[in-house]
């Protein structure tokens, strides 16, 4: 339970782990619980969607879902997305990109990335039928955190100095990723049946390519790119779900 509480504390604003310091081994063990933490976030989003549907809020309800999504994570991953966009799209050399990502000031590319992610989530959520929306918002946060497990497990840390991402140590074990994959595929099948397997697989393939491009550009991953990959994955899952379910209905 300690590792589970640590995962919740690290990924959300809920301080179940308290003020205790966690070592690299504890942080590495907490990776096993990242998808489960995502499902807890998703459960809160499902509750929000149900309340919104009961009150007939329509697209405003989807905006509230996104607001709750941001609030429960403390905007941690969005911050990583914006910092990563400023660095990765700067056109500079590797070290300069990493330096830009450390800068707390927000650049144009970060603002654009933030706007695009929020608009895509809102636009595609409003397109989903209510029943399908419940399944997607339950799975999307878990998929996003599964992508973080992949990034931590398969890519080196890009910075030579200290950083949030270094707290995991040099994890090189397949266990967390295997566990995350089985959990996500199982949940997708239970909630969305065979279309869910297709949606998860297609999203996962794109995420793998995205993570590799990030790592090639920076010489590895950082805490910021973990957050960026989470946000990108969540959004991709929603987009792929809308497209796939529409195509599935036509066949």
Can you walk through the features of this model?
The protein is 76% helix and 0% strand. With 251 residues, it is mainly alpha-helical. It has one domain. Helix 1 crosses helix 2 and helix 9 crosses helix 10. The longest helix is centred in the C-terminal third of the chain and has 44 residues, at 175-218. The mean pLDDT is 88.
Write the layout of secondary structure elements.
Layout: H1 2-11, H2 24-30, H3 34-54, H4 59-73, H5 76-88, H6 94-102, H7 108-127, H8 130-154, H9 175-218, H10 223-250
Radius of gyration: 18 Å
The total of helices stands at 10
**Which percent range describes the beta-strand content?**
under 5%
Class by alpha and beta content: mainly alpha
Largest sheet: none
- Overall outline: globular
Number of domains: 1
The rounded distance between the terminal residues' Cα atoms is 45 Å
The overall pLDDT average reads 88
Helix content: over 70%
Poorly predicted sequence stretches spanning 5 or more consecutive residues: none
The helix-strand sequence is: HHHHHHHHHH
Count of DSSP strands: 0
Q: What's the gist of this structure?
A:
The protein is an all-alpha fold. It has helices at residues 2-11, 24-30, 34-54, 59-73, 76-88, 94-102, 108-127, 130-154, 175-218, 223-250. The protein has one domain.
